[in-house]
Each structure stands twice: as structure tokens, then as C-alpha cells.
């Protein structure tokens, strides 16, 4: 075994069911309720009201057993519920990779968007089933459900990439996705 290998992970098969949006075997599942998105929606009062009104699940992330450690390549499927808070579509927290590493997302179900911000420029990729969104190193990223059904996507990312949430709280994401008749509109802060 080469010295850079990271025991105890051995080669194994992962069953990817694109229709059901599942990965087997399952690892940890992360569930984020509205209360976990403090400071992220533009309308703080509306966010607070949504927390008080039952603190709904906004999204969940189902991983395989591949650990988030350097040199491993974890995968997960995220499912974002459909909804808006004061007109702003529900979304992931969004994060920057502290070590500036790339990532890919493959859209599976629903209608979403991949919002990216490098501190200056904002980019948006429409995500429909079959779209692979590439996140280059140095771009903070957030996924948004801009449809009426759950938006689901597969993520594959370097295990050592990390999640810097403070960067997004400090710098924002450049734009926000709001519901308008027949779709969405991106607005500046
Ligand atoms: O870390 P956040 O911003 O809550 O969003 C979760 C997303 O991050 C990842 O864990 C990795 O980028 C994805 O699997 C998932 O969609």
C-alpha cells in the first residue's frame, strides 16, 4: 500500500440510484433546519418568524461512509425543500473551502441553481437533471431550490476541503434568488 493511503478505507462499490437520489451504503446524514441558517436570509425578521413557526427542515445531506479527511473523495446527495422566506428561495448555508479546492455537483431532481462568489464576481449556473456544475477553487458556493419540488444533487469533493461558513457571513454571496411570477430573479444585496 502506498504510504499516502488512509486506512481503514478499502476500495468499495457505491450504488447510485439517480431516480431515488440515494447512495448506498449510507454514511452520516446532516439535517439543517431553518434555525441553522441564522444571518443568511436578507429578511431577518421573516427568518426569525419561520424558526418560531415550527423551524422547518430546509435541507438534508446524505453521505457515504467516505470520511471528510485529506486525500479522500467523499460524496453526498443534498435535498433542498421547496420554499421561500420573504420571497427568497430556500438554499444551503453556502461555504468557502479554506484550502481553495474544486468540487462538482450533478443535478438529479427538481430545479435549482448553483450560486458562486469569489469575493468580487458572482456566477450562477442553472441546475436541471443532468447538469454538472463545476466549482473552481476559490469560489464560495451555495445551492438554491428555485422550483416547486425538492431540488436534489450529488456532490463530490476533496475530503480535506473543509467548510468555511464565516467567509460567507462576512462577504455574502453577491446575489440572492427571489421568487417572481413564473420563476426567479437574481438580485444584488
Ligand atoms: O455546507 P453547506 O453549505 O450547509 O451545504 C452542504 C453542501 O456542502 C457539501 O457538504 C459539500 O460541498 C454538499 O454535500 C452539500 O450540498
Automatic annotation (TrEMBL):
PANTHER family: CUPIN TYPE-2 DOMAIN-CONTAINING PROTEIN, OXALATE-BINDING PROTEIN
Entry's Gene Ontology molecular function annotations: glucose-6-phosphate isomerase activity; metal ion binding
Similarity comment: family membership: Belongs to the archaeal-type GPI family.
This protein's GO CC annotations: cytoplasm
CDD domains: cupin_PGI
Catalytic activity from the UniProt record: alpha-D-glucose 6-phosphate = beta-D-fructose 6-phosphate
Pathway this chain belongs to: Carbohydrate degradation; glycolysis; D-glyceraldehyde 3-phosphate and glycerone phosphate from D-glucose: step 2/4
Keywords: Gluconeogenesis, Glycolysis, Isomerase, Metal-binding
Gene Ontology BP terms: gluconeogenesis; glycolytic process
Record-annotated Glucose-6-phosphate isomerase prokaryote domain positions: 32-183
Keyword RNA-binding appears in the UniProt entry: no
The protein's enzyme class: isomerase
Stated name of the protein: glucose-6-phosphate isomerase
InterPro entries found in the cross-reference section: G6P_isomerase_prok, GPI/OXD, RmlC-like_jellyroll, RmlC_Cupin_sf
SUPFAM superfamilies attached to this UniProt entry: RmlC-like cupins (SSF51182)
Enzyme Commission no: 5.3.1.9
Species for this entry: Agrococcus casei LMG 22410
Amino acid at each position: 500500500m502506498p504510504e499516502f493511503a488512509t486506512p481503514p478505507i478499502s476500495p468499495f462499490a457505491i450504488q447510485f440510484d439517480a431516480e431515488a437520489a440515494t447512495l448506498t451504503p449510507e454514511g452520516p446524514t446532516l439535517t439543517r433546519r431553518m434555525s441553522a441558517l441564522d444571518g443568511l436570509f436578507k429578511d431577518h425578521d421573516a427568518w426569525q418568524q419561520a424558526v418560531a413557526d415550527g423551524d422547518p427542515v430546509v435541507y438534508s445531506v446524505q453521505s457515504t461512509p467516505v470520511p471528510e479527511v485529506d486525500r479522500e473523495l467523499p460524496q453526498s446527495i443534498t435535498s433542498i425543500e421547496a420554499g421561500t422566506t420573504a420571497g427568497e428561495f430556500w438554499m444551503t448555508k453556502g461555504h468557502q473551502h479554506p484550502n481553495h479546492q474544486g468540487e462538482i455537483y450533478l443535478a438529479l431532481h427538481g430545479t435549482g441553481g448553483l450560486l458562486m462568489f469569489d469575493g468580487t464576481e458572482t456566477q450562477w449556473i442553472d441546475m436541471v437533471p443532468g447538469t454538472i456544475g463545476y466549482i473552481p477553487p476559490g469560489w464560495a458556493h451555495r445551492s438554491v431550490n428555485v422550483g416547486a419540488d425538492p431540488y436534489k444533487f450529488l456532490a463530490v469533493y476533496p475530503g480535506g476541503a473543509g467548510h468555511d461558513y464565516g467567509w460567507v457571513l462576512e462577504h455574502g454571496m453577491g446575489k440572492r434568488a427571489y421568487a417572481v411570477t413564473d420563476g426567479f430573479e437574481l438580485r444584488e444585496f
